[in-house]
Amino acid sequence: MIYFDNSATTPIYPEALDTYIKVSQAVIGNPSSLHKLGVTADQLLQQSRKQVADLLHVSSKEIYFTSGGTEGDNWVIKGTAIEKAAYGKHLITSAIEHPAVSKTMQQLEKLGFEVTVIPVDAQGVVSAEAVKNAIRPDTILVSLMAVNNEVGAIQPIKEVGNILEAYPTIHYHVDAVQGLTEFDAVIQHPRIDFLVLSAHKFRGPKGVGILYHKAGKRLAPLLTGGGQESGQRSTTENVPGIASTAKALRMALEDRTVAHQTEMQLKGILIDFLTGYEDVRIFSTEQGAAHIICFAMKAVRGEVMVHAFANEDIILSTTSACSSKKGDVPATLEAMGVPSEWSKCAVRVSLSGENTQAEIERFKEVFHQLHTKFQKIQK
User: Fold this and answer.
1) What is the DSSP secondary-structure string of 75-143?
2) 198 three-state secondary structure
3) What are phi and psi of 58, to 5 degrees?
4) Percentage, residues of the chain above pLDDT 70
5) What angle do CA 15, 6, 24 make, to 5 degrees?
6) Looking at the annotation, which residues are catalytic?
7) What is the domain range of residue 331?
8) What is the mean pLDDT of residues 216-231?
9) Do 220 and 303 belong to one domain?
10) Does 52 have pLDDT greater than 80?
11) What element of type H or E holds 311?
């Protein structure tokens, strides 16, 4: 089987899985318990927190563990709204955000908050100047994704960060779930207040997320109860998953340079190949993230293409795993102005550093066969 759906989820590192299993078996205590089993669990929890913090070049007091990207995004947005409602009810985001952000913003609108949605250009990129122009005296949050999950468009996170230096009271939230491979270039900026990661996007376990929460920035808890995570996120911590996540993050950051080079090479080969077909449109650019290529074959719906490739043991997806089963029009492509007759045909190949040129060659062979088949059907 050839796996080209790494934006949806990645296969866990064997080493991270081994950590998960060993910790599950050996560390059985609740980290909130006072007895020695609880102390052992808490020690491992704090060691994992420090490892993650060191890898992200922040303080361990600024790292909180969640259940994933969706919870992290919800927590930052709703937590900001609750905490800062007395100072303003205006939020800024973009038209190409993940539903964890866009639908959360829609919820807040029903509660009396006002949301400005910044449009994107034909490449799916937000204008930093447009963000600046949208800022008002009552703005409390700017929320942007680092890398778009549908087409791989890299957003001007640093440029917006530079603008927000002049507005220290506005929270700056970055959804970096798809952006770890762009860590140095995009998501490492001192003005970022909150940054969200999800372990299963960097070969860690499912069900664990990381929230960077800058010291001094106030955020209301989303989950209240027993007071775990310094009172900010109540629920018993998933110690095996967190230890596994710390291991996976270290490995992913160590591998990212070589992985990025591999992905860029394979992406270039694939784009060159698809460009040769007159009835194929490519929505990702070479300047976008190395691991995502979104394209469409004219008059062939995305789900048909996905199933046709699956029959040949090649796994790809429609543009977003979160929306693929619903048959929704891809939000990013709609925001980019792509006509619906093309966007409904869009599929996404998302790579990892583990993919090979031989796998791309097999993809090309199958694609050509399917292209010939679909052309005959349409005539």
Assistant:
1) HHHHHHHHHHTTT--EEEEETT--HHHHHHHHHHHHTT-EEEEE-B-TTS-B-HHHHHHH--TTEEEEE
2) strand
3) -135, 180
4) 96
5) 30
6) 322
7) 2-8+255-378
8) 94
9) no
10) yes
11) none
